Amino acid sequence: MLYLIPLFLGILIIVFVASRIAGDPVQLMTGQNPRITPEAKQILREYYGLDQPLYYQFFIFLAQLLQGNLGNSYAIRGGTAVTTLIGDYAWLTFELQLSALIFSLLIAIPIGILSAKKQYSKLDMSVTTTSLVGTCIPVFYMGIIAIIIFGYFLGWFPASGAHSILEDRYPFGSYILDGLWHMFLPAAVLTFATLAPVVLLVRSSMLEVLRQDYILAARASGLSERTVIYKHALRNALIPVVTYVGLYFGAMLAGAPITETVFNWPGVGRLFVEATTKLDFPVIMGVTVFITIMTLVANLITDITYGYIDPRIRIE
Amino acid sequence: MKRKKSTKSDLSNQNERKRSKGVSQWNIAWRRFKKNKAALAGALVIGFVFFLAAFDSLIAPYPPNALPAFYQGETRVSPSLKYLFGTDYVGHDVFSQVVYGARSALYVGFGAAAIAMSLAILVGLVSGFYGGLVDNILMRITEIFLVIPFLLILLVFLQVINAVAPSGVGGLSMVAIMIGLFSWASNARIIRGEVLRVKESEFIEASKSLGASKRRIIFRHIFPNVLHTIIVLTTLMIANAILVEAAVSFLGFGDPNAITWGQQLQKANEAVKEAWWEGVFPGLFITLLVLGFSLLGNGLRDALDPRLRE
User: Fold this and answer.
1) % residues pLDDT > 90 (chain B)
2) How many domains does the structure of chain B reveal?
3) Do residues A69 and A83 lie in contact, with contact meaning Cβ atoms separated by under 8 Å?
4) B157 is in which domain, residue-wise?
5) Domain membership flag for residue B24
6) Which residues of A are less than 8 Å from B272 in CB distance?
C-alpha cells in the first residue's frame, strides 16, 4: 500500500513540470487582455505565488491538494474551483466507463470460457478472430461507425450529448429514461471495445489452467464438467483477468477524452480536452490528479480482490 | 514392394541430408511463419500500405491538400469513379488524402516504436542483468510510467510544445518522439522478465565459469536469446503507436501540417450526418494497418518462440 505514495508523487512531479514548461501561467491567463499592465501581472504573479521558486510552488500545490483544494481555473467558467468543475463532470464519466466495464466483463467471461472449452472449434475460431479485429479498431472509429448507422441511418439513438435539450423530447417524459437512451450508444461502443481484449485474455488464461494437473485430478475423481470448470478452473483463470481489469480501468479513464469527444459526452475527458486546448493548467492538473487517484484506487481494489480469489496472496 | 522400400530409403536420405546441412533457428522460424496464413495476410497488408506510402504521388490522382472538387463545385460528393472515396466539405479528394496519410502512419509507427523499444531494451537488459539496487530503482520508475495516465500527459506535452513554438516544432517527429518516450514501460518489464529467465540458464553459468566478461555475456548470450521477444514486442508496439497517433490527431493535438488518417477522422466527425465517406475510409485504413501489424506480431510469436513449437 505504501508504495502508492512515491508513485503518486512521481506522477505529480511529471505533470507539474510539464505544465511549467509551457511558460508563464500569468501570460497565459492574461494573454487575451490587451490592456493588462506589467504591474497588474506582477500582482497576479504574487497572488498565485508564482514569484516563488519552483520547488516551493510544488510544495504549496501539495499542501493545497492535501486540503482538497486544486485551485481555480484560468479559462473554463473563469475562476471556478477545479474541484467543483470535476464534481460536475465526473459522475457522467463514471457512469459511462463503469457500465461499459461491467457489461464487457459479464459478456466476455462466459464467451472466453466457452471458447476455451471448445478450443479450435468453429465457434472458438470466430470468437478469436472477431476479438483480434476488435482490438485493432480505434474506439473513435467504432464510435463514428455506430453514430452513422444507429444515429443517422436508423435513427434509433441520439448521436451526441448526455441529455435532450428540450424536455418534450424525453422518452415517456422521463429524465432517467432520457439519460439511458443517450448513454446506450457510447456505452455499447465502449463495451465492445473493452470486450475484445478481455475475451482473448479469459480464453488463454482458461486454456492454461485447464492444462494443470489439479484439473486432471478433479476430472479423475469423477466431478462433473460443470463443477470442474466453474469451481476449480474459473477461480484460477480469473487471477490474470483481475490484474488486467485493474490496470485497464485506469487506461479506460485516461482514454475518456477520446470516447467523450466522439459522442460529445460532457464528462471529465471532454473537460480535459477543452482545458488542454486553452492551456488551463489548474484544470489540467486537477483532472490528471483525479484520474491518477482513481487509477491507483483501482489498482488497490485489484490487490484486495486477489485475496478473495486466491487465498495464497492475502494482504496482511 | 521394391518401390516402397526405395521411397522409404529416399526419405531417410533426405532427412539425413537436411540434418547434415544444418538448419538454423531462423530457417525453422521462417518455415513455420510461411505456414501461418493470418500472419502472411498481415505482412501483405503492411506491404500494401508501404507501397502506397512509397508511390503516393503516383497513386493519388491529386496532389496533397489539393482542392479539385472545390473548383468544380463538387464538395461533399459521395464516392464515384471520379472521386473513389468521395470528396469532403472543403473539396479534398478523400482517396488522395487517404493515400498521403499512409506515409505519416508508418513514420509515426516506426519512429515511436524505435524510441520506445530502445528504451525498453536498455532498461530491461540492465535491470534484469544487474539486479539489486539498479533493478529496484529502474523498476520503480517503470511503475510510474505504467500507471501514468499516458494519453492525458501526451496531450498536455503536445499542446505545450505547440504553445511554446506555434509553427509546430518537428511536427510528426515530435508526436513520434512523445509517444515513444511514454510507452516503453510495459515492454521493459517483459524484457526484464525474459532476461531473468535466460540468466538462470546453465549455459550462462558455463560462460561465466569460463571467465567471459559481463559485456560478452550480455551481448553474446543474453541478447540473442531475448531477441525473439524483442522482435514480437516491436511489431506490436508499431501497431499500438499507430493507434495512439490516430487518437492524438483525432483529438486535434497532432501535427496540423501533416496529412494523417486521425486528422481526417476528426474532420469527418464534425459531419458524419452529411458525409459518411469522409470518416469511413481513413478509419478503415487505420484498422487494416493496425490489424496487419497485430497479425504479423502474433505470427512472429508463434514462429520464433521455441517454447511454442510442437
Assistant:
1) 25
2) 1
3) yes
4) 42-304
5) no
6) 144, 147-148, 151-152, 159
What pLDDT sits at residue B5? 47
CB atoms within 10 A of CB A16: 17
Which has the closest alpha carbon to B45: B295, B302, B301, B298? B295
User: How far is it, in rounded angstroms, from Cα A285 to Cα A25?
Assistant: 13
Model confidence at B69: pLDDT above 80: no
Nearest in space to B247 (alpha carbons), one of B113, B144, B108 = B108
Neighbours of A179 (CB within 10 A): 16
The residue-averaged pLDDT of B176-185 equals 90
**Contact (CB<8Å) B294/A255:** no
CB A83 within 8 A of CB A286: yes
Please list, in sequence order, all residues whose beta carbon lies within 8 angstroms of the beta carbon of residue B143, skipping any fewer than 6 positions away.
A3, A7, B185
Distance CA A263, CA A146 (A): 10
Q: What is the ipTM of this complex?
A: 0.83
Q: Confirm whether B141 is domain-assigned.
A: yes
Residue B6 covered by a domain: no
Chain A residues within 8 A of B281 when measuring between CB atoms? none
Cα–Cα distance for residue pair B62/B254, rounded to 1 Å: 23
* pLDDT of the residue at B6: 47
SS3 B23: coil
Mutant choice from A11, A120, A136, A285 vs B, greatest count of B C-beta within 10 A: A136
Q: Specify the CATH number for the domain of residue B295.
A: 1.10.3720.10
- A289 touches B at CB < 8 Å: no
Tens of pLDDT, residues A47-76: 777 777 888 888 888 888 888 888 778 777
Best residue of B250, B265, B291 to probe chain A, by most A CBs closer than 10 Å: B250
Inter-chain residue contact B243 with A132, CB threshold 8 Å? no
Per CB-CB distance under 8 Å, the chain B contacts of A250 are: 147, 149
With 90 as the cut, is the pLDDT of residue B237 above it?
Answer: yes
**pTM, 2 dp:** 0.85
The two counts, helices (H) then strands (E), for chain B are 15, 0
Number of H helices, E strands in chain A: 14, 0
Label residue B61 left, alpha or beta by phi (over 0 means left) and psi (-120 to 50 means alpha): alpha
Q: Is residue B33 part of a domain?
A: no
CB A142 within 8 A of CB B246: no
Say which residue, A126 or B11, is predicted with more confidence. A126
Q: For the residues A289-300, what does the mean pLDDT come to?
A: 85
